[in-house]
Design a protein that fits this description.
Shape: globular
Number of strands: 11
CATH class of the largest domain: Alpha Beta
CATH topology of the largest domain: D-Maltodextrin-Binding Protein, domain 2
CATH superfamily of the largest domain: Periplasmic binding protein-like II
CATH architecture of the largest domain: 3-Layer(aba) Sandwich
Structural class: alpha/beta
């Protein structure tokens, strides 16, 4: 074969093979793009939306850098929406309260509770009252009987610290929802509970201890208008829950990597300290599904989770 014919044949083969090469290249790029699918986190909307946006904006930046994948925060409208987002896979990992965490895990097989704040192993609710209510602080659960005949608000209907456990302790004192003056309210968030009791819209209410303490420390509560009646005994509460299928997208060790990233947040590092402060925590620590058995039991007892 002449040199000219060989050159002509090579050119024809090159033209034939070029589309195949481009297709293979495109396939690799598509696969790479697929590996960049965002890891989506969410959270129950238990506080002011602007504060939540700031908190999770900082956390997503941190996790993106530590995990090497894009991380996005998906806000939701209410507690039930957070559970639904986790169940259907719109959110890969969610910051839940004890009750919503149990509800979510029961709907996603092999979902794991992987981290909690140091304060969540012994969490408390606080009962508060407007000073004009005539209510005074007490030292024992039996003091909750004094709430009978007064107006009262919980937080969200699905809140562990703002509804589930307060209702449980009211039951321990023999107080039912029918004992309040009028129907019990549901403010929707811990911040709203403080505001409604402070304004006198409700004479008393119950909320998350950490939110109460942080708002008082920030000078955002008028202590001339609202007082603490009682702090409950401890229970497990907030925690991160992750879907098992994230490891199909990001690798078999991905859940462990997420855990380690949360545990490595260092209060001595100014950037990490800001994230921890917004969470009201000194650090994140390990947890496991069994820690929330009491929450599940109470929820079944008062009808928040159906017993099979």
């Amino acid at each position: 074969m002449s040199s000219d014919k060989r050159i002509h044949l090579i050119a024809i083969l090159a033209l034939f093979l070029l589309p195949l090469g481009l297709a293979a290249c495109g396939g690799n790029e598509a696969a790479q793009a697929g590996s960049e699918e965002p890891f989506v986190i969410s959270a129950i909307p238990d506080q002011d939306p602007e504060l939540l946006q700031r908190t999770y904006g900082l956390l997503t930046d941190y996790l993106s850098e530590e995990l090497g994948v894009p991380v996005e925060y998906m806000p939701v409208t209410d507690y039930a929406a957070a559970v639904t987002a986790f169940r259907v896979g719109d959110a890969d990992m969610v910051w839940f309260g004890g009750l919503t965490g149990v509800q979510a895990r029961l709907q996603v097989e092999d979902a794991q509770a992987i981290a909690q704040r140091n304060i969540d192993a012994e969490f408390h609710s606080v009962f508060i009252a407007n000073v004009d209510s005539g209510l005074a602080p007490f030292d024992d659960v039996s003091g909750l009987t004094g709430l009978a005949g007064h107006t009262f608000t919980f937080g969200s209907e699905s809140s562990t610290s703002g509804r589930l456990m307060p209702q449980y302790f009211l039951g321990e004192a023999g107080v039912t929802l029918d004992d309040f003056a009028g129907e019990a309210g549901f403010s929707g968030s811990h911040d709203a509970t403080i505001q409604l009791v402070e304004a006198g819209t409700y004479e008393a209410g119950a909320l998350n201890e950490q939110v109460w303490d942080s708002r008082v420390e920030a000078g955002e509560v008028d202590l001339a208008r609202v007082i603490v009646l009682w702090r409950t005994p401890p229970y497990y509460d907030y925690h991160w829950i992750i879907r098992p299928d994230v490891e199909e997208r990001y690798g078999d060790d991905f859940i462990e990597r997420v855990q380690n990233a949360l545990y490595m947040l260092d209060p001595e590092n100014p950037e990490d300290a800001e994230i921890l402060e917004l969470f009201g925590a000194e650090r994140f620590i390990p947890t496991m599904n069994a820690n929330y058995d009491q929450i599940e039991s109470v929820a079944r007892e008062i009808g928040m989770i159906e017993t099979p």
